[in-house]
Design brief:
With 450 residues, the protein is α/β, with parallel strands linked by helices. Among the domains are: 135 residues, Rossmann fold (3-Layer(aba) Sandwich), CATH 3.40.50.12160; 55 residues, OB fold (Dihydrolipoamide Acetyltransferase, E2P). Helices cover 35% and strands 21% of the residues. A six-stranded parallel sheet has the order 2-1-3-4-5-6, sandwiched between helices. A five-stranded mixed barrel has the order 15-16-17-19-18. The radius of gyration is 22 Å and the shape is globular.
């Protein structure tokens, strides 16, 4: 961390303003928080919108074609804003790593293209950036801790903590190994140092992040994720611990036992399925079968009967038949996920699947996605209705966007909007659930200690 801080220099961007727009998942949000910390340490200050910014930084996600399309549209809209103020416009992250110089050809008004391993260099680059545009996409083989300051975190009570990055699995549809690189693991001592710092500042929840968190191995001691969870749980003040994302192949009985035995670990898990068809799973190079996945789910439910499960599902993978899709629907019925993230297959550059013929017609993909999401919506409503009348712990994240309410999440990571006569932001509270929809729960603050 000290090395990364030294690279920013001493207030080298003093008086300058920056605006960061983030596309993608929790990992991208966390990256943006680290990037903001580096810029704050260099003396820059955040702006409310790109029109008021000296530096417009767009942090990107390359996992889905749709997110890339949204990015390209957004970059197009920024051209006039950049030219009016004379701002520096940078495209950062996974799309930058994937497309590199091609981005400069497509958007000739871009000033900087930098991959996810170059964030520590960004403040110095911005200071010295003149007429020459830059493309920086080198790989870092070793772990580099980046500083993060409290002002850069979006939440005052729940924090992302990166524990590893990259992936060694090379699923045929997935671009992650080509934009994040091979797996590298953050030292356990560094993770614990950050969590202790969060606890000292009043954070109640940490979410441990990585593209494949359950393959984590401390490079210094060899400790795995179960040991890491136990050590984090020893830190006073932290109430809830989550981790995302897990790969089913690496999700073993030791981790299940850790979830069941460590009180602070939430009974909630995101475990990407992708498909319920063994034939498609093999084509995806997922290295497990539907029977393997079901066995892990059954073991989880036997040890944690109240566990809340979520997953990722892709429809329309090359050669997917109606029978293949029905096998996915069958697992949807059997497992009854509390939430799913579902997508139409889109080929990603450099992946093995991009060399396959994308032979499922678009209208078939859309039909299957609609059927999947329609049934999942019904399942979610059924599961949420089972919680009505219960009193649950909720981590309140602040005022809700829905009227005179507060919003938070329960242990199952479901959104809870509730009424309270007093300000309970950034606190753990108990809420009596009085109603629900398919995507959120509704309730009232209970007069009970959390």
């Amino acid at each position: 961390m000290a090395q990364a801080m030294e690279k920013t220099g001493e207030l080298m961007l003093d008086g300058k303003t920056f605006y960061i727009h983030t596309f993608g998942c929790q990992m991208n949000v966390n990256d943006s928080e680290h990037l903001a910390s580096l810029l704050l340490a260099a003396g820059a200050r955040p702006a409310r919108n790109p029109e008021d910014s000296d530096f417009i930084l767009v942090n990107t996600c390359a996992v889905r074609e749709k997110s890339v399309e949204k990015l390209f549209s957004y970059l197009g809209r920024l051209k006039d804003q950049k030219e009016r103020r004379g701002s520096v416009l940078a495209c950062l992250g996974c799309v930058a790593q994937l497309y590199r110089e091609k981005l400069l050809k497509k958007f000739p008004y871009l000033d900087l293209v930098a991959g996810p391993h170059q964030y520590a260099e960004v403040p110095l680059i911005l200071k010295n950036l003149q007429e020459e545009r830059r493309v920086l996409t080198a790989w870092e083989k070793d772990w580099t801790d980046l500083p993060i300051v409290p002002e850069a975190r979006e939440s005052r009570v729940s924090a992302y903590v990166t524990i590893m990055e990259g992936c060694n699995n090379f699923c045929t549809f997935c671009v992650v190994p080509y934009v994040r690189g091979r797996e590298k693991y953050r030292p356990l001592r560094s993770i614990l140092e950050e969590v202790r710092s969060l606890s000292d500042r009043g954070y109640l929840e940490v979410q441990l992040l990585g593209q494949n968190v359950n393959s984590y191995r401390d490079p210094e001691t060899g400790a795995g994720l179960p040991e890491l969870l136990a050590r984090v749980a020893e830190i006073s003040g932290i109430e809830w611990i989550r981790f995302i994302t897990s790969h089913p192949r690496d999700f073993g009985p030791e981790l299940i036992e850790a979830m069941a035995s460590i009180r602070k670990v939430c009974h909630q898990l995101h475990l990407p399925l992708q498909s319920g068809s063994d034939r498609i799973l093999e084509m995806m190079n997922r290295k497990y079968t539907r029977a393997d996945y079901l066995e892990k789910i059954d073991r989880l439910k036997s040890r944690l009967p109240d566990i809340s499960l979520s997953t990722d599902i892709i429809v329309g993978f090359p050669t997917e038949t109606e029978e293949d899709f029905e096998q996915t629907m069958d697992l949807l019925e059997r497992i009854r996920f509390a939430n799913i993230f579902s997508f139409r297959y889109s080929p990603r550059p450099r992946t093995a699947a991009s060399r396959l013929k994308d032979d499922v017609p678009e209208e078939v993909k859309i039909d299957r996605l609609v059927r999947l999401q329609t049934r999942q919506k019904e399942i979610q409503l059924e599961l949420n209705r089972s919680l009505v009348g219960r009193t649950v712990r909720v981590l309140c994240l602040g005022a809700s966007k829905k009227g005179n309410l507060y919003a938070g999440r329960n242990e199952g990571y479901q959104v809870v909007n509730f009424r309270s006569e007093k300000d309970v932001s950034n606190r753990m509270v108990r809420v009596r659930i009085t109603g629900c929809g398919p995507y959120s729960l509704h309730g009232e603050l209970a007069d009970e200690p959390a």
